[in-house]
Design brief:
Blueprint lengths: L5 E4 L5 H10 L8 E6 L6 H8 L4 E5 L5 H15 L6 E4 L14 H31 L8 E6 L17 H19 L4 E7 L16 H13 L9 E3 L4 E2 L2
Parallel strand pairs: 1-2, 1-4, 2-3, 4-5, 5-6, 6-7
Antiparallel strand pairs: 7-8
Helix pairs in contact: 1-6, 3-4, 4-5
Bound molecules: NADP nicotinamide-adenine-dinucleotide phosphate.
Amino acid sequence: MLPPRSVLITGASRGLGLEFVKQFLQVPSPPEFLFATCRNPDSAKELQEVAKSNPSVTVLKLDVNEINTIEEAKKAVESKVGDKGLNLLLNNAGVNKKASLEEVTPAMMLDTYNTNVNGPLFTTKAFLPFLLRAAESSSPSEPSSAVVNISSIMSSIELNEKTDAYDYRPSKTALNMLCKLLHNELKDKGVHVGCLHPGWVQTDMGTTKAPLTISQSVCGCLQVMSKMKAENACVLTDYTGKPLPW
Ligand code: NAP
């Protein structure tokens, strides 16, 4: 896709989401509007610092489990992007309770599913009119609107040999199906749907044992995103551009 004019990122308080904000500010044509959303803007100190020195960054409250916060964020986004719509929705927010079979409870399953599947679904549903608007206002040969969902290699049924993360793995597998559904729905409307594995990364979720720095992962993800096209097939792709089996 073309360098996006406007981008909305969920879970931008820390980890990969915060780094996406920082690296979007450094691309050759940075977005005019960068909506960095998080559950608790007041406690997202580092994000607030970034926003202070970059007028293109708007910090908005958005808890993917609370529809009212999605609706409020939607109003704020519309007031800025207007007729040109939203070019990129990056569904990054996620949780991983890393529950073993012994630990897992129905509440954990529901909570993780709610954030990792319902979150991207209802955030996408809310912002879809703006994504469609951006796709319509771009040239037909260069559709410039996308939803990118941050999935995980841990979603892959084919690759899994482990017995961990009973809450997380199935939630990301369900997210993959959601990506495919949205792709089928939107492929002829100029909106690309991406499904990205960022690698195993040194965030709170990935821990310090992870091999990749946050910067390496996000740098790779941005390169992969720059090559996305609405008509491309929907595949689980890692941060180097390598396709992974579902
Ligand atoms: P992280 O450091 O734990 O950060 C998670 C982010 O999600 C935080 O900003 C958190 O906000 C936010 N979040 C959680 N629940 C939310 C909700 N209900 N509404 C809005 N935001 C919410 O994790 P990360 O490693 O950056 O993960 C980002 C994405 O990459 C996730 O989807 C994850 O599954 C995926 N991923 C990560 C790795 C890895 O190795 N790190 C590998 C594969 C995939 P608060 O600050 O408010 O808690």
